[in-house]
Write a structure and sequence with these properties.
This protein has 5 helices and no strands. The chain is mostly helical. It has 2 domains: 44 residues, no CATH class; 39 residues. Helix 4 packs antiparallel against helix 5.
Length: 118
């Protein structure tokens, strides 16, 4: 039987407690007197410029969140909305004669889509 909603979880690792592998690794590095930040600081000046950039870019992923690309496109699910958006964009750059032809095609496509949805 699953735990009812609203009841707090019990057991498990406390928040902020590192897992066992992390503790073992930290203990091993301490036993070896190995300081990661000191080692990186010593190695960066020795590396060539391209490798320095690679290392710094990799380290930045742990300090700053990755940014997502922003899309300026319309996001719709219906085929008719996509067609209407594309035709609207095309109308902006078409001559009046071509616009009339596009409107005729748009009308026919709308009828076909409407018939398919029935």
């Amino acid at each position: 039987m699953p735990r009812p909603k609203g009841i707090a979880k019990t057991g498990g690792r406390q928040k902020g407690t590192p897992n066992k592998r992390t503790l073992v690794l930290a203990d091993c590095l301490t036993d070896l007197n190995f300081d990661i930040l000191e080692r990186i600081t010593d190695l960066i000046p020795i590396l060539d410029v391209n490798k320095q950039a690679d290392v710094l870019l990799e380290l930045m992923t742990y300090l700053y969140p990755k940014r997502k690309a922003v899309s300026n496109e319309f996001e719709t699910n219906s085929a008719s909305s996509k067609i209407q958006n594309n035709l609207l964009i095309q109308k902006v750059v078409l001559s009046p004669d071509l616009m009339k032809a596009v409107e005729n095609i748009e009308s026919e496509l709308s009828k076909e889509i409407h018939n398919e949805l029935k």
